[in-house]
Structures are given as structure tokens and as C-alpha cells.
């Protein structure tokens, strides 16, 4: 079979992809704010879905504060092993940070059972005990976002950034609105869309920016 | 802040989500073939993106053959650790299967360097040496799909199923067309969309179907 493959070197593919995304945004008449466009474009790159040009909401100074936190070695907490797998851990380690996902921990399963909650809720409770700066990267469980909201309201949690991008059809939309109502730095994909891939992608965009790579 | 959260038990959320997807497909006038709709709907569930109702292409008897292969303990090979993380390994193990991702292997890095290819290509070459039935779940690298195509053409690879769902803007579309041209069972997301999440999701849909869960 004859197909037309572009002769682009592996290292150039990402660059070319971002050029295409930039061109098509222009064609669609979409102008992204300079401070955040490199994150939004990476989400489009990860999903081939231009809806992210419209649904991503950045709270004021969220990116600045997130970059500061990562520079200080912030811990990233995810709600899936998949998001954890997708985050560039080598890059994060350069700044002294690490990724934690408590979803498969035995004590989390026990706590969830005891309290009659999801494991995502129990994971957030466990994360509230972490020392040092914490970034939440939530791509799956709306219950995780609701619990983060409650813990912040109770003064028991002070995250540097909440990445609120669960995907889905039940309770996803309102859980994101809860996060947007907080006075905490956040990056939220308003509406139904998101996912572990998007959560990881936003973390990586921040890390690559810090490394001056992209 | 007052938001409206639906009072749905965690176990019921997936069921309710599929009901919503079914309703909205109906509203959009989309009728999915019965043999594959449970896979397509799970992809929509994973992404909140109804484009998957239109872009997924199933080769004839692909699902039947894939289910047979999984029943026989097929190995699933992924091109990202993220896809590997997303596949339900407990469910797969019940049938004697496991997931392999060679992308971080040292011999793969060496082979890629020596041959001047991507690591994805070297991973597929390594996969060609596997014993027993193999399913490929490719959600990232078009070069992996191109290499699978070549290996099949050369008679060196006889996969039970190729899940061809890389995402992106360069060489993604034609790499999928190559797979569609083969006389090998395949599930392909035609066009730019896909991802490691979609690759894992299709594997899980097949596994849950086998378990009679959904």
C-alpha cells in the first residue's frame, strides 16, 4: 500500500505538531493568552482535541505559582496509576520532586471501606498528611475533587495547585465548579472532558517549561 | 458554594454514564453496530468525546478473534508505560495474559540507537520475538504502527489484533491507514485522535466483556 508519510525526524515531530496546532488555532480565529498557551497547546497535542482551546480555565497566577512550587520540589499527587505513569518523573526529580498515587495502597483501601467512601477520597485524605508543597493532578475521580474542596474549606489542605481535569458524565462538571470556586491556584478543564492523559500532560508542560525545553 | 451533585453510588456511576452516552447517541441519531458498541461506548466514556462514535473502524471478526486470543492468555504489547498502567492487569491475569511495554528496556534503547530508529520501532522488533498470541495496543507512536505493518508484510509477525490508536498531527493518519490495509484483525481510530488512554480502554472493554461484567 502506498501512503504518504512525512519525512520528519523523531526529534522534529513534536515541533512540527505544535506548528500545525498553532496554524489551525489561527485558522479557527482562536487567540490564546501567551502566559498559558504552551500548556493549552500541549493538551491539544496530547488529545488532538481542539476543545481544550476553549475549556481550560487558569486561575490568576496559577501557572506562576505552580512553577514556583515545582522549583521547590513539590510532590505531585495523582488519582490514577495511569496519570502517574504519564508524568515525566526524571524531569520532576531534577527539581527534587516526586509523584505519588495512593490509590493501590492497602491503608487507603481500608480507610475507604471503614468510612464508606471511594478510594479516591481516602487517597486525598492520605495526601493531606504530606509534608511540603503539593500539586494535585486529578484526571479521573470527581470524588477526589470534592474531597480536596472539603479539605481546603476545613483548612486542612493548602495545595500549591489543583489540576482538575476528571473526565466523565456523572458529577464531573459540578466537581470542577467547586474547585473553581476556591481561592486556590487551579487549572481546570471545564465541562466533561479531561482524563489521566490530560492531567499528566499539564504536569509535563510545566516541567518542560521549567527546563527551558519548550 | 452550592453545586448540584447527583446522589449516585460509586458502583452505579459507570452504569449511569453508559446510560447517558446511549441517550445522547440516540439524540444524535447515531446507531452503533451491536457487536462493537460496547467498545465504542467505553471509548466515549474514557474521553467524553463522541467523535469515537464515528472514527473507530473494526475489521471483520476483529472482536471475536481478539476475545479468543485473550481467552488463550494473549500477551498485550503497548508502546507506552501509560497504556500499560491503564490496562486492568488483574483481569488479564485471570486468563493467563500479561502486559508488556519494552519502551524503557535497555536493549531496546541500544537497538534503536544502533539502527537509527525510534525506541517504538525497536520495541516492536523485540515484540516480534514473543512466543504465543500477541495483541498490540498502540496509542502513541505512529512509527510503531509502521513497523508492525512492515513486520507483518515480511511474515515475521502474526498478531491476533492490532489496536491502532496513536494520537497526533504528524504521520498518525497514514500510519493507521497502513494498518487498515493489512489482512490482520484491527481496531483503528481513523484520523488524528486516540491516545494511551484509548488503547488501554479498548483492552479493558474486551476484558470486561470476557468476564461478563459489562
Automatic annotation (TrEMBL), chains A, B:
Pathway membership, UniProt: Cofactor biosynthesis; adenosylcobalamin biosynthesis
Keyword Disulfide bond carried by entry: no
GO biological process assignments: cobalamin biosynthetic process
Keyword Phosphoprotein: no
Family annotation (InterPro entries): Cbl_synth_CobH/CbiC (IPR003722), CobH/CbiC_sf (IPR036588)
Domain of life of the source: Bacteria
Domain Cobalamin biosynthesis precorrin-8X methylmutase CobH/CbiC residue range list: 12-208
Pfam families from the UniProt entry: CbiC (PF02570)
Gene Ontology MF terms in the entry: precorrin-8X methylmutase activity
Keywords per UniProt: Cobalamin biosynthesis, Isomerase
PANTHER family assigned to the protein according to its UniProt record, in alphabetical order: COBALT-PRECORRIN-8 METHYLMUTASE
Family recorded in the similarity comment: Belongs to the CobH/CbiC family.
Designated name of the protein: Precorrin-8X methylmutase
Originating species: Candidatus Fusicatenibacter intestinigallinarum
Organism placement in taxonomy: Bacteria, Bacillati, Bacillota, Clostridia, Lachnospirales
